Amino acid sequence: MKIDIIIPVYRPGRELFALLDKLEGQSVPIHRILLMNTGKAYFDELLEGTEGMGEAGFARRYPNVQVRHLEKREFDHGGTRHRAVGHSEAEVFVAMTQDALPVDSFLVERLTANLQGNVAAAYARQLPGPDSSEFEKASRYFNYPPSSRVKTAADLESMGIKTFFCSNVCAAYRRDVYEKLGGFVRHTIFNEDMIYAAAAIRAGYGIAYEAGAQVVHSHNYTNIQQLRRNFDLGVSQAQHPEVFGAASSESEGKRLVGDTWRYLKKRKRLYRFPGFCVQCAFKYAGYLLGKHYRMLPRGLILKITANREYWGDFTILS
What we know:
Elements: E1 3-10, H1 15-24, E2 32-38, H2 40-49, H3 54-61, E3 65-70, H4 77-86, E4 92-96, E5 101-102, H5 107-112, E6 119-127, H6 134-143, E7 149-151, H7 156-159, E8 170-174, H8 175-181, H9 192-202, E9 206-216, H10 223-239, H11 241-244, H12 250-266, H13 273-291, H14 298-304
Parallel strand pairs: 1-2, 1-4, 2-3, 6-9
Antiparallel strand pairs: 4-8, 5-9, 6-8, 7-9
Helix pairs in contact: 2-3, 6-12, 10-13, 12-13
């Protein structure tokens, strides 16, 4: 079985080499790694700044890595990944982000082991990095528990919107099912992974969460960054009521607050809880603004969003 890995890249640092080295050392062979790089100049700068490696040196060091460059205005969360799938011939492809680092050499093996039967996709467990804030650690443990499971339509009543949860930070997809379902939505500001997972589940497939497949991935976002990110999240939910209209996300937010309270209490750090509440207020404000983006002036949208290029065509507001 051929396995390709797809990674959108933007202004990479030397950590990209650490990721590629980890992928090269996986317990199962990787057929090809496709880097969809936004901004060739940034990539060239990295290569020239790394002991003058250059394109030739990079090709020698990573012979199975293929780099495809695109302009910033061309990037789209769903469309760019779909283009990459078109360049792949593999039966299984793994979508990753440039800031996710495999914990060990068994990531891809464990992630793809159960892609059979009715399982259409599988996503990995994300662990907080050593410099993660207490809030980020609590969030990672909340969204990525230690037990694996396969989610199907039968879980909608008990799990709600979490049934559709899937993350392209690190997720593997069966090519046959992907093509049958039409792939990732071509133009979306966010959530292309959950939108696809929802389509798969509604078509009778399952989405596997593989807790044994692990990557280190976390961010210490500022409150403003949280607001911007959640604005885009709200926009995507407003644009896809067929996915997010059936189950509320607010209940998950309430559960996160309760879990974080218990997490901080257990570690005798409840003095941090007020700061967490402030962060939640920024996140919820961004989410509500995004959900009602059609009522906002374009100028305000461009100030709030984390993805200005997405709004290049004003008709998207209609």
